[in-house]
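Quick question about two entries, pasted in order.
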Amino acid sequence: MTLGFMIRGEVNEERLLKAVARALGVPLNEVARFSIDSESDATILVEIIHRTAGFLTDVSLYFDPQRIPSIATWSSIDVAPPIAHDLEDEVLVSPPADDAYANAAYTWYLITPDGKRFIADELEPDQRGEVIEINRATLRPT
């Protein structure tokens, strides 16, 4: 299973791994950085991409839901609020597939550190997906 989100600021690996462990309710030693160069038996593997503009930390979580049944039905929108709260930063996630008001090409859910959720349109969508920034004038509460 894969969950993904982007964080407004640049977050170092150690702080991010701790936030993921707390958000998903697993011990820190069960969370590790994803690397194609080494094997890991960690329950959750975390891929981190640092971007140069917009939302700076792009995160993907990989795990086998059978190893963590308590979160087997979670989506990215479920993990985003505790991450935003823990890191005290805004988090972006793709809208759920069944959201009738979202355009998957340029609409995002913005989660604030205090747990508020907004639908936001992307500012000048970058066809390459390298820079993701939202147009604050389009924020709509969910």
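Here is the second entry:
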Amino acid sequence: MRETRWLRSIGYGFLAEIATIVTIIVVVMAYQYVLARGLSEPEYTAFGQRAGEIIGVYVGAIYTYIFARRLMPRISSRFSEHGMVVALGAIALSIAGSIAGHQGVPLGYLLASILKIVAGARAGFVYNRSLALNRMV
């Protein structure tokens, strides 16, 4: 039973990374087909790379927090650790995708990974604290 909680944490991390990827795709498609029609292909490519960098780093951390927070009611202890495992799941998927797509891992992934780990741990900490405050009331 314990193993399934940790596997669930990894699954939530994968979902956080998939949400990040979908967000990047939606933003790039909206830019290309709604907001900035008629630009050249290199301009769209440059925008896509820049949007991917920003969204991947910051929104990826936000999604990690959100998905880790969604996991918390489904577990009974070690909340920050489970949150960090959510982050590790997201990091594993992002690094695998980067290696497959870029044949390497850009330096920006280091910042993204750190932010995801902090976000996951924070989600667990906040949830644990809210439980403690509810017990006091």
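Reply: The chain has one domain: 2-132. Helices lie at 2-35, 41-71, 79-102, 108-136. Hope that helps.
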